[in-house]
Every structure is written in C-alpha cells, then in structure tokens.
Amino acid sequence: MGASQTRSEHKYQDLADKTGFSLEQITNLHKRFQQLSGNEDTLSRQNLDNIPALANNPIRNQIIEAFFDKRNQHQDEVGSFNEIGFEQFLMVMSHFRPPTLKTTEEEKEALRKEKLRFLFNMHDTDNDGTITLVEYRKVVEELLSKSGAIEQETAKAIADAAMLEVASTNVPDMAPDDFYEGITFEHFEQILKGLEMESRMHIRFLDVDTTTMRCGKSTS
Amino acid sequence: MRNFKMPVEFVRDAVAGNNETLRNDSHHQTNSTAHKKAFPVLSFNYDHVRKPFEISLWILLALLMKLGFHIIPTVSNVVPESCLLIFVGLLVGGFIKAIGEEAPILDSKLFFLYLLPPIILDAGYFLPIRAFTENMGTILVFAVVGTLWNAFFIGGTMYGVCQIRGAELASVDLLSCLLFGSIISAVDPVAVLAVFEEIHINELLHILVFGESLLNDAVTVVLYHLFEEFSHAGTVTVVDALLGVVCFFVVSLGGILVGAIYGLLGAFTSRFTSHTRVIEPLFVFLYSYMAYLSAEVFHLSGIMSLIACGVMMRPYVEANISHKSYTTVKYFLKMWSSVSETLIFIFLGVSTVAGPHAWNWTFVISTVILCLVSRVLGVLGLTYIINKFRIVKLTPKDQFIVAYGGLRGAIAFSLGFLLTNSKMKYMFLTAIITVIFFTVYVQGMTIRPLVELLAVKRKKENKGSINEEIHTQFLDHLLTGIECICGHYGHHHWKDKLNRFNKTYVKKWLIAGERSTEPQLISFYNKMEMKQAMMLVESGNAAKLPTIVSSVSMQNIQPRGPARRRAIPSISKSREEEIRKILRGNLQKTRQRLRSYSRHDLFIDPFEDNVSEVRFRRQRVEMERRMSHYLTVPANRQETTPVRKVCFEPEHQVYTYDDSESPRGPTVQPNPIPPDAVSLLSESPQRPNQSGAQRAKVPDEQEEQDQLKLSRCLSDPGPNKEEEGDGSFRS
Where is the composition biased (Polar residues) (chain B) (predicted)? Predict the structure, then answer.
C-alpha cells in the first residue's frame, strides 16, 4: 500500500513539475478525469461531448478540439489526438493557471505568451501560422451561434471589421496592392495587449474535491 | 389687501356717488379719499422672488467660479477644483458675515435630499460594471471591515485621548467618542470623485477607492444610528450589539432591494416610451430619485439603493431609449452632479465661516492624526489578507494610493450637523471640518504629484476595440467551458447562468422589440459603428479624425479570387496607355479645381442641390456602412444618384470615386493622405458575395465608365450602377 502511494506521488510529482500544479490540485483533477472518462485511462471527444453543462456553450466544439490539439502539448507536434491521457489533459489545463505573488515580470510575460498561444491555436485551425479572414469569420459565427438566428452578413461584417482593425493597427501603411494574409501571432499579441491575459485567462482551481460537484464559489 | 379694499370702496363710492372713482375701474384703485397716486411704472418687490432668486444666485456664483478656474490654467493644474471651491466658499462666507447677514449653512436636509442624490446617481449609472464585480470582494472588505475598523479604532483611541488630564475632555464619554468615530471614519464619495476625476489613475484603483466610498454608506448609516441611540440610552447590551449586526444586513440588503425594484420598474416603463421620446430621460431620473427617497423613509441605505437602481436600470433602458434620450440622460446627470458637487464644496466653505466653533487643540490634532494612522493600518492589514484571495495582487504602490485616497467630505459634516447633543456638537464639527480640510487640501493637492512620482499606472485609453470585445466574450465562454469540464462552479459559471437567465426571461420583458434578442457583440458593434459615423460626420470640417487612420482597406484583407483585381484581360497595352493619357489630360483640369476646394467643400458637393439633404443622407449612409473609419476606399453606389469626381493617384493611375452617396464616400475626407492617393474600387472588395469571375469583369466596366465619363461633363451624375442590396449592410 505504502509503496504504491509513494509511487503515485512520485508520478504526480513529475506532472507537478511539468505543469506547475500542486499535488493536491493534480489529485483532484485526476479524480475529475476518471469521472469524465468513465474510469478509463484515456479521454475521448465523446466523453467531453457528454458533459451536459457544456451543451449551452457556443464555442464548445472549439474547446473540445483544443484538448485534442497536439500543439497545446508544447512538444512541437501538429495534428490532433483521438484520445488523450491524463498527462495531456493536465497540460491543457495548465494553460489556465493564474500567476502567483511570486511570479516575476518575465515569467508573467511567458505566461501571457503561453495563454495567447493557446487562444491563437484555437482560432488557427489549419495551423498555417496565421488566422485568415475565413477562420476569423468562423470564430465570430460560432460565438454568435447560440444567440438565435443571426444573419450571416452580420457575423461577416463583425469579423471583417475586426480583421481590418488588426491590419490597421499593425501594418498601418499598406499600399492598396498589398494583401494582408492573416493575423500572425505577433499581431495577435499586439491587438490583445490591453486585455492582460495572464490575469484574465485563469480559473480558480479548487483545492478541495470537486467530484461531488459542489455548488458555490470557490474558496481558494 | 388692496384687492380686498376695492369692493368696499367701490360700494362706498357708489353710495357716495363719486363719479371719478366709478369711472376708474382699474384693479389698482388707490384710496379714494387720498390723492390719486401715479400708476406705478416701476416697482420693487423682492420678497416675492427672494427664495428662488437667492438659490439661482448661489448656483450661478458656483458655476461662474468653476468657469473661472478652468480659464486660469496654471491654478487648475496644481490645485484640485474642490480646494478652490472651498476657498471661494470661505471668502463668500466671510463676506456675508462681514456685511452682517446670516450665512446659509449646509443644512443636512438640503444636503441629503437635494445635493447628494445627483452625484450618487451619476456615479451609479455610469459605474463600470465589469471592474466593479470583478473586484467586489475586495471592495466589500474595504468598505465594511475597513470602515468598522476605522470607526472603532478612532472612537476607542479618542476616548483614551479624552481621558488624558489637562485636555478638558473628560466629559466626552465612550459612546460619544464611538459616535464621533463612526461619523469621521467613512470615506466620502463626493471628495473621492472630485479628486480622482482629475488624476486619471488606472481603473482598478479608481474602482477600489470609489466603490469603497459608495458601499460604506450602509456601515456608516448603521453605526451612526446605533451609537446615537445608544448614547441616548446610555448603556449597551449584547443583544443591542447583535441587533446592530442584523440591522446592518437589513439596511444594506434592503437598500439594494428597494433600488433594484425601482430599477426594474424604470426599465419596464422605458419599454413603452417609443412614442413619447421626449419624456424618457425623466423616467430615469424620477425612478432613481424615488428609490433614494423610499430607502430613506425606512432608514435604509439611500446611496446603495440609488446605485442598485442605476445599475439595474441601465442595460435595459439603454436598449430601449433613443440615442437622443441617452445623450440627454448622460448630460443631465453630469450637469446636475457637477452643480451639486460645486455647491457642496462652496457651502462647506461658507459653513466653516458661519458655524459656531469650539476649538480644542488636543481633540482636533489627535483626530487628524488618528484618521491617517487608522486608514493606513487598515489598508495595510486588509490588503495582506485580501491578497491571499486575489489573482491580481495589490502592490504596495496600489496600497499607498488606496490609503492616501481615503478622503473625508461633506457627508461627515452633514452627519455631524445632525447631532443633537449641542454640547459636544460644535467641538465635533470643528474637528470634522479640520479633518475634511486636511484631507481635501493636503491629500488632494499632493496626490497628483505623488501619482506621477510613483509612476502609478494611469487610465488606459479606451478605444473600444472590437477585437478586444470579441475576445472578452470568447474568453468568458472559454473559461465557463473549462470550468464545466473541471467540474466546479466557479464564478464564470454563475455569471454565465445569470447571463442566460437575463437573456431568456428578463430581456424579453424589459426591452422593446427585436432588440431584446440582440446579442451583446452585435450591440457593441452597432454602437461602435454609430460612434464612428457620428464622429466622422461631426469632424467633417475638422482636419483629421482622432482615430487611427491607415491605408489599410477592405481590399487588403479580402482573400483574392482567381482573377486579380488589376487584370484587364482584353485591353492591350497600347490602348491602356491611350486611355491613361486621355484621362490624365482631363484630370489635370479637375485636379486644379479640386485643389481649390477645402475639405468642407468636398463634403458639400457643389453639384448637389440641397446641402442639408446631402448631410442627412450622408448621415444615414454612414450608419449603414460596414467598415467605418478604417477604410480609405469608398466604393459602392447607393440608391441615390452618385456624383462622380475624379482624383489622381500618384502613379498616374486613375480611379474614380463617388462622393457623398456612396457608403464610403465621406471616409475619404479625414484621410491625411492627400486626396490624390485616394482610390476607389468599385470592384468587389465590398461585395464578398461576388465570385471571382465577376471581379474580372468589373475592371472592364470601370474603364468603359471612365471613357464614358470623359465625354460627359464631370458634374453629371453617372448612371446608377450595380445597386447593392443595402439590407446586407445593415447589421
């Protein structure tokens, strides 16, 4: 008994170092993982699809895809998995850690880059390094998808305006002949500079067991 | 009196048979026995209008002072307005006292019922909701715990001070000290607003201090009434203390409830005002004021009620009322709050001169010191605890600003004024006034250089970026989704639930028409478009737009079709040259003509008949544009007849553009690039529906048109081509 426990802690220690979670958080997330995957070792898209609360989310497909996206594993691979293990699950979750009091400015910058990269990957579905107009339009359409019948034109208009804004901010002196290929990562960073992603894109990981699905605000 | 006499006289005269008086049937019949007085051409009756006259005079004086400060730039940069106004009040008070008149004092009734509500409503209505709710926990801790700490610390320590022999303060008992502490402990929203408005610090600090000043009203109200009751009763029991705690919850939650009810009523009413737009703003004001008064009836927190009403009402009312009404509401609120603030500070100055004072060195000095000390200690201590729960921690710099921004103001004074125990009232009032002066003058004046010295983050320019809006919403959904996957119901989950509840049930009831189903992103987009359009129309005469203008246009971002834009498949090179030469030749002339026009003229096309009609149409057109200020390329024709003008491009390529009636025509205006460089493409970019094949055709038409155009006079409106379905533009 004791041996297996130390072994699992050791395993988690590895993960803790890699992802930055605490051991307790990893244990809780593991329990959640087990619950989602039906006590199996791998999670499939179907498992995530079955979460009832996600049904109302307009961008659920993108979110689910993000879990299976190889780019979010930070191992320079591309493509997508069919199933993910706990480690991959944790890696994706680690994008949502908040900065602590001890995070230095450089670490904050790195954190922000990482989170923005995650968002970028969600938009850039064909992985060509830029978010093209078509892709951006899709993003806006998905965002508005649950809001009732929206005219196609409206979503297009909004996406076009947004694209134009990115282009004008980043490449203000474009000649009429030039073509703006798409939003590169640098431009993406630039346009979302004001949002302070490192403090906004996070969730509070409960340091208590979440598998009982307790309601109420987190206390951590 | 006079009128009463007349019938009697009349009868008497009739009886006496006095013909003269009978003949004279004017109402101003004078005494028949005396000589007939001349008809008063000019008379003086001041009493009749005394009250409104004086009120108006005061307000006028206050506003003229305000005007004066801003005309003298050097002074207003160094000294905050509040200080200057108090100073003016002192002068005026001194003047009035000198001439022996009785100076009007800052009556509590006047203050709480008339001067304070506009300021609070202005603050509450325009409260930045997102920042407020994100920091709600911190604000509540500062407001409740911080104020309690202040009250008890100051009260307790003052009692200790009063026990010192030789200070002649032995008569001040513990309860009175605590009462005093509760009055002086609260941070004042009016003073905070007045000072912080001018220093433009970042949103977080602003909302922390300001939110605290608003929410501590409940605490102040409860403590004040509690200690006042107790000091009459003389003793305090545990039950009383418990009741006090219960009272706090009742006061704050009750106040919010009252405000929310009135807010919903106001929102509901605004749903039906589409036919009587003129009175729309009044509903906003009246419902809010009623919320305040209703809360005051029950001794609930009027300020919290007012805030709740404004916050509740705003999203629905704004969706319902017309743009003009919205502007009216905004400007009236700003106007009233500005006037109120000015009056408050002036009256504060006047009251200082007028009121009877009881100066006690020990008391006053120790009050000032204790206020500062307790504030600093409170902020430091609380921040230490709060930072454990916050994601964005409060740095020491932030803490300093929060502590330093704890200004006291007129609320403390008015509460002090309400005290009934006259023996200590004047001593308390003197101390309160000293603290107010100290915080407003010393802290108010030095906070600006300190902010610059410490390089505190300033308010960032809010450019209303649509990308940020898209991603804010995207993030909201993303985080909610991740929370679902994680399995815990964090505050994103609840926010999402609230939004959905709002959308499905509440909006249907409170928002008129189809706007109830409009998603937030689209409302935001529409608002932005409208703003751009208005700005453009207004700045049509100005040199340039404040926004970024770049040469990027739709054509730059549209994916290229199979045929490139420039492809002119069936015209040979030589023909091209010919065409170009001809065009160039004719353009030289028009260019000279164009040059002589001012920007103003370009808008108001001399070829058009009715200038105002053009403007109106243009405004309408602006609002239907999709791409507003980013575009340099106007293009599509509208249903109205376009007028063609020609412009030169530096590379001697000729393009034409349509003025005024094209959706993008006026956008040419503010472009700092010389009009020469303006190019138009009637080609596709604005019509993504067109297939690439069509695009290839258009350049042909373009060239044909150019040629056709040459033969006509340039003032001739061209034929109405390619009408674009405008429905698609409308978003």
Answer: 681-693
